[in-house]
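Schema walk-through. Below, the input block comes first and the output block second. Nothing else is stored per chain. Lengths vary across the set, and this one has 206 residues.
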Amino acid sequence: MMVVGLTGGIGSGKSTIAKAFAALGIAVFNSDEQAKALIANNAQVKKRIIAAFGEEAYQNGEYNRAYIAQIVFNNSEKLAILNGIVHPALAKYFKQWTKKQTSPYVLKEAAILFESGSYKDCDYIITVTAPEEVRIARVMARDHCTEAQVRARMAQQWSDAQRIALSNAVIENVDLESAKEQVKRINDELRVTNDELRMTKAFVNC
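--- output ---
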């Protein structure tokens, strides 16, 4: 199964683009949502987080997001510990999920696809971009936060230039209809590529 990574900076509109691929019949794995589910429900993950960050990490069985965020926000070592717990569990679950899918390829949506190193498991990578001022305005409206807070979050992520350098395709997400056209074109190309790969494998196995 071909794995296509979809990433982009905060406010770029990754989820909107992922929905456009889903509308074309592509199975989409939302890494952020699945990571939250593992943190909330996976007994082994919960046990390791409590061991690393203390009993306060969960209150009445619920993940204490504010408490953990306060610890890891400006502490790269603590953030690495948290990621070291969550990302391997997420990678394992993703492999299990992929085996159950029947679409021509699967789309793995991840905000930190490159930062986490999971891009190495992708056969093709798409980066979603938008002008910085557009991204900031989107996040301020969505999360009810200040420009300074958005910029602080942006500073923790790779730049568009870094992402694009390691990507196979770029989708500019400013105008929705234009973005959907870009999605359709890339989807058509990926379906052809996937068919060619299947034919090659079939030939090799003959």
